[in-house]
């Protein structure tokens, strides 16, 4: 895998929130660390009426806002020179002609057939017209030079349910081969999440008990202190389950539950994740009523863009089960929410307690493994040890591994830098394949449908408290 070949990144929706907060800072990180190809440029392709100079000013403002207001001026200007802008109605095929001309001009100027990476940083409703226009304009066709490629980066959410996701996926398959399609799941690019594979399969300590015989339960928490803020209209159409449950939580579940892949080859890792997800047991209507919970924080309906009688959840909890011999009977408890009292993004694996045990008469302690993404990036193992002294008095102790100090973590920048770098060099390990996508929606769809019919009441909770998770 190499990143030296000339590459053109075309960003659809270049003035949107994802690009401002995540993509531009991440590209700057790669630029500053010399990880971009020597010949590299970015074409912003969006509806906003503006010139290249205005777009570059916008990029500078986003750097000052999301990276630092005091960056080195010469370096920033060199970075800005990588950017240009083409205005277009994204659903109008004729507007793609100027884009084709610009791509041809760059190829001619560079005297090569550059790689083309098309990044769809737009809502799912625009995927269909963009893909149609790309097809009509023939921009996805390779220019034929050996070693050059065309790829597409697709942002989440891909679809709003299984049917729309499969329609988008089929359309992608008409234009691209699977090895050209990069479905973003930025949680897989988090440093501690990537460490799960190493923790499980490069160590021999826990894998022998990593099953239904050794594990009592698995809990996966994504508790955020932030609210919906300025995303009211989008969030009200999606909700927490589809925003983070259908993707982030299920991918974390897959990493915890997957069998050891045959190698670290991208296809082997993705197939191992997909195998777990296809064995997620769909919940029946009775199980949805008893094993799921949803709630909304007070004040949510006052946010601009949110309906006055909105039934959208800002917190949910689901008890899932994997129908595989290794995991049969082990509950996987998934929960996520906005405006929760304490920031906590972690996985808790509780091991089964041996019976009989050499335990004190006043209670039993269970061993737990905690894998934390936030607020700390850490792995903690809880165990029991004897207290110093003449008696066999026991106490709970913890082995801690802190990956790095909290202040060294740049939110989103590191993940999206990894996403962009891997897309350029052709490593699909941290991207979702088509089987994973379908399996995740197959599990989530019945829950969304049942909730929409009122089978599970929408509870309310006070924001900035732990009221919802304690209910």
| Beta content | 15-25%
Rough outline: globular
Biggest beta-sheet profile? 9 strands, mixed
Helix content: 25-40%
- How is the CATH topology of the largest domain named? Dihydrodipicolinate Reductase, domain 2
Level-1 CATH class name of the largest domain: Alpha Beta
Write down the secondary-structure element order: EHEHHEHEHEHEHEHHHEEEEEEEHEHE
Structurally, the number of domains stands at: 2
C-alpha end-to-end distance: 49 Å
Q: What order do the strands of the largest sheet run in, or round the barrel if closed?
A: 14-13-12-11-7-10-9-8-16
Structural class: alpha/beta
Number of helices: 12
Total number of strands: 16
For the CA atoms, what is the radius of gyration?
24 Å
Q: What CATH architecture of the largest domain do you see?
A: 2-Layer Sandwich
Arithmetic mean of pLDDT: 93
GO molecular function: glucose-6-phosphate dehydrogenase activity; NADP binding
Family: Belongs to the glucose-6-phosphate dehydrogenase family.
Domain Glucose-6-phosphate dehydrogenase NAD-binding: 10-195
Active site: 248
Fold topology:
Elements: E1 7-12, H1 17-32, E2 40-46, H2 52-66, H3 73-80, E3 83-87, H4 97-110, E4 115-120, H5 127-137, E5 150-154, H6 162-175, E6 181-184, H7 191-201, E7 215-223, H8 232-257, H9 266-278, H10 285-291, E8 292-297, E9 315-320, E10 332-337, E11 344-351, E12 368-374, E13 378-386, E14 394-402, H11 413-425, E15 431-432, H12 434-452, E16 458-461
Helix pairs in contact: 1-2, 1-11, 5-6, 6-12, 8-9, 8-12, 9-12
């Amino acid at each position: 895998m190499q990143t030296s070949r000339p590459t053109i990144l075309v960003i659809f929706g270049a003035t949107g929130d994802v690009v401002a907060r995540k993509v531009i800072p991440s590209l700057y990180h790669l630029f500053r660390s010399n990880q971009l190809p020597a010949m590299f440029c970015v074409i912003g392709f969006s509806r906003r009426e503006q010139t290249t100079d205005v777009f570059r000013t916008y990029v500078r403002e986003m750097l000052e806002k999301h990276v630092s207001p005091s960056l080195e001026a010469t370096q920033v200007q060199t970075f800005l020179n990588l950017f240009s802008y083409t205005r277009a109605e994204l659903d109008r095929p004729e507007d793609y002609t100027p884009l084709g001309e610009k791509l041809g001009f760059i190829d001619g100027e560079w005297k090569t057939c550059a790689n083309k990476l098309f990044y769809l940083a737009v809502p799912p409703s625009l995927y269909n017209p963009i893909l149609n226009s790309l097809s009509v304009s023939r921009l996805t066709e390779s220019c034929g030079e050996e070693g050059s490629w065309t790829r597409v980066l697709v942002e989440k959410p891909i679809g709003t349910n299984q049917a729309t996701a499969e329609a988008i996926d089929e359309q992608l398959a008409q234009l691209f081969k699977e090895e050209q399609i990069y479905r973003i799941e930025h949680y897989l690019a988090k440093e501690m999440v990537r460490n799960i594979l190493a923790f499980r399969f490069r160590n021999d300590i826990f894998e022998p008990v990593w099953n239904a015989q050794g594990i009592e339960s698995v809990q996966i928490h994504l508790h955020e202190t932030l609210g919906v803020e300025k995303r009211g209209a989008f969030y009200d159409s999606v909700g927490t389950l589809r925003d983070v449950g259908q993707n982030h939580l299920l991918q974390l579940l897959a990493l915890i539950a997957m069998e050891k892949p045959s190698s670290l080859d991208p296809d082997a890792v993705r197939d191992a994740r997909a195998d777990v997800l296809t064995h997620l047991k769909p919940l029946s209507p009775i199980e949805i009523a008893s094993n799921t919970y949803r709630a909304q924080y007070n004040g949510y309906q006052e946010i601009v863009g949110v309906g006055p009688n909105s039934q959208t959840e800002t917190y949910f909890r689901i008890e899932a089960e994997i129908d595989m011999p290794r995991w049969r009977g082990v509950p996987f408890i998934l929960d996520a929410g906005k405006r929760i009292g304490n920031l906590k993004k972690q996985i808790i694996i509780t091991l089964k307690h041996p019976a009989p045990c050499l335990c004190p008469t006043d209670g039993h302690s269970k061993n737990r493994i905690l894998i934390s993404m936030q607020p700390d990036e850490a792995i903690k193992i809880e165990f029991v040890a004897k207290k110093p002294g003449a008696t066999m008095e026991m106490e709970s102790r913890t082995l801690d591994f802190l990956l790095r100090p909290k202040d060294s973590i740049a939110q989103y920048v590191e993940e999206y830098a990894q996403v962009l770098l891997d897309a350029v060099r052709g490593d699909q390990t941290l991207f979702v394949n088509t089987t994973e996508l379908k399996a995740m929606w197959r599990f989530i769809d019945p829950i969304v449908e049942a909730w929409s019919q009122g089978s599970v009441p929408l509870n309310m909770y006070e924001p900035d408290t732990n009221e919802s998770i304690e209910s």
